[in-house]
């Protein structure tokens, strides 16, 4: 194997000697967008909940893990979105009704207590031909014609000198990626910052925010004009072994966009390469272009499909791909949806649910006016509502939701009870008509952290939730387990 050593240079407070193995080293940079008309940059507070930088700045004390769902919002900071799945097309179908070509028998037409629930199928995914075209172009990156992937989930960690903002942005980028990955491929995040030791360390993807002038040789090897760069090691069989992702924060116009730059570089460290915008337009993996043009911090459907397929369907080291490599694949998703607190003409309901596509089921929840739970109060607060989700076999699951927080400690409990399931690819039926799911209930200990709350113990699974309303009149969030993904909502009692 050919090895290239990059001269010792300073990054942040330390030094690196970067080497490459099997042609995998060197920079894979994201350059500045091409010149021409561009959307004006958002104002400093355009993407925050409470003037803290941007919408993902929730839970700033570090609560939750890398496998919790990302927290997001619209440009006006009016709506919070829990989850990484794009449900735009599903909402469009709900609002305008369905046609035989685009939506299948559906509606939110069943009442479960105070919530309305239902299901629909929407052609909102990526076709097998689109995905294969992307993966073939990806395999050709650096002319090795191999689909690249790690042998086991790597651990992401920061280089010493990272600020709290750097850590938080990286954690949320990891959560966005994990939202698309299978349950057994979740990236880990190590809170301990790594001492610079002059190596790309096997098993780790290391992240640093630093000026381009401090990158190896100033970004020589493909990153001289870039705002972000990735260095990787991989073996001849396409197995990734180590990675480093760099972002120059001074050359990115907003904090929101620097998360997209970091996502691009992290996908390089996971094995993805640059592809042509003309051949593969709907991806973050172009060498140049304007990033983050959508209202929410989410990956494109193509990038999500590629992440899932590479880690669930495609054999590592495959170069010549055909439809058989993907197995059964459809661009149609099954959605289960719930709505709590809906009043016609008023925007105050919590909408929640899960989306299933090709065996990957992902939860989400959304509502207006996310707010921080006050500290230092006495007594407790309780919310009650419903949960709706799906199993990996696309069976609808629904049940009751009850949550209580002790206001002095901001600690509490969350329970899902009376859990029922129905046939695959159908909506939940009337209460009492389904079979019991599992042992019928799940229980968690939770802790509030600013606008958000997370699990701290109890049954298996990750809880990610947000308080809504000026007086926290509602809550909404997600549950994610290997056997169930669900959204939930509750109203204050």
List keywords for this structure.
493 residues; mainly beta; Collagenase (Catalytic Domain); Porin; 2 domains; eight-stranded antiparallel β-barrel; 5 helices; 27 strands; disordered N terminus
Descriptive overview:
The chain has 493 residues and is mainly β. It has two domains: 3-37 and 128-325, Collagenase (Catalytic Domain) (3-Layer(aba) Sandwich); 87-123 and 331-492, Porin. The chain is built from five helices and 27 strands. An eight-stranded antiparallel beta barrel has the order 19-20-21-23-24-25-26-27. Strands 5, 10, 11, 12, 13, 14 and 15 form a seven-stranded mixed β-sheet that branches. Helix 3 crosses helix 4. The model is unreliable at 1-25 and 32-62 (pLDDT under 50).
Please give the alpha-carbon distance between the first and last residues.
Answer: 65 Å
The CATH class label of the largest domain is Alpha Beta
Multimerization state: single chain
Largest sheet: 8 strands, antiparallel, barrel
What is the tally of helical segments? 5
CATH H-level superfamily of the largest domain: Collagenase (Catalytic Domain)
**Would you tell me the structural class of the helices and strands?**
mainly beta
Mean pLDDT level? 82
The level of helicity is 10-25%
Name given to the CATH architecture of the largest domain: 3-Layer(aba) Sandwich
The coarse silhouette is globular
Radius of gyration (Å): 22 Å
Low-confidence stretches: 1-25, 32-62
Strand order of the largest sheet: 19-20-21-23-24-25-26-27
